[in-house]
Every structure is written in structure tokens, then in C-alpha cells.
Amino acid sequence: MGMVNVDERHLLIIEITEEDLKLNKFEYDKKNKKTGEVITDSLGAPVKGVMYSQTAIVKLGRQVMEIKVPLEEGQPVYPVGSYLVHPSSYNVSNFGNLEFGFGLILFPLTEVKNK
């Protein structure tokens, strides 16, 4: 396979730093997808859902912004490093638009060093 050199200014790069190694947990009331009403248990209390994430930095050319990277329950946080978005994280909507899917999967961006 041949080597391709790409200017990083044209890539969507996700960067995880030491400060980003914390797992964030967010609880929310689950809702019925059709009606939008809050789902309750047999005692009338709202049924809770949990979303997990970690903070990261996204580099879009010269722009640098903080984002949340979603994680599955039990998934460890991504270690410090630079990442690209895995192709399975994208999908095409019913209207033909390219968009991120529900899960965001990252894979490490490694630098090739000349000897």
C-alpha cells in the first residue's frame, strides 16, 4: 500500500489531553419516542437513562473547539493522543445528507517518523 501525505489542516482531528481523561456521566428522564412523554415506573417515578462521555478538543483546520465524545456504558475513556473519526461513525440520512451516527468511534492518528 502506498503512503499518502495529507496536510493536517484538512483533517478533522480529535485530541485528548491529560485534562480530558475524566469520565462524564449525565442522567436524564427517558421519554417515549412517539409521544415525547416521560416514561414512569410502577410507582410513577421517572425512569432514568444515563449517557457517558469525555471531553476532547476538535481541530477543524485552524479552529479549535471543545466537544463531548460519547462513550458506551463500561467503555473506558480514550487515552491521551490524537485521533481521527472512524468511517463507521458516519451515515447518510433519509434526505441524502452526510451526518454522524449515534456513536462516535475514534481511532489513533499515528505519526510516521523518517529514520
Question: Main traits of this protein?
Answer:
six-stranded antiparallel beta sheet, two-stranded antiparallel ribbon, 115 residues
Textual characterization of the structure:
This protein has 115 residues and is mainly beta. The mean pLDDT is 86. The relative contact order is 0.23. The strands form 2 sheets. Strands 1, 2, 3, 4, 5 and 8 form a 6-stranded antiparallel sheet that branches. A two-stranded antiparallel ribbon has the order 6-7. Helices cover 0% and strands 41% of the residues. The radius of gyration is 18 Å and the shape is globular.
The SSE string, one letter per element, is: EEEEEEEE
Shape: globular
- Straight-line N-to-C gap: 19 Å
Structural class: mainly beta
Sketch the major β-sheet.
6 strands, antiparallel
- How large is the radius of gyration? 18 Å
Q: Portion of residues in helices?
A: under 10%
Oligomer: single chain
Mean pLDDT: 86
Low-confidence stretches: none
Number of helices: 0
Strand content: 35-45%
List how many beta strands DSSP finds: 8
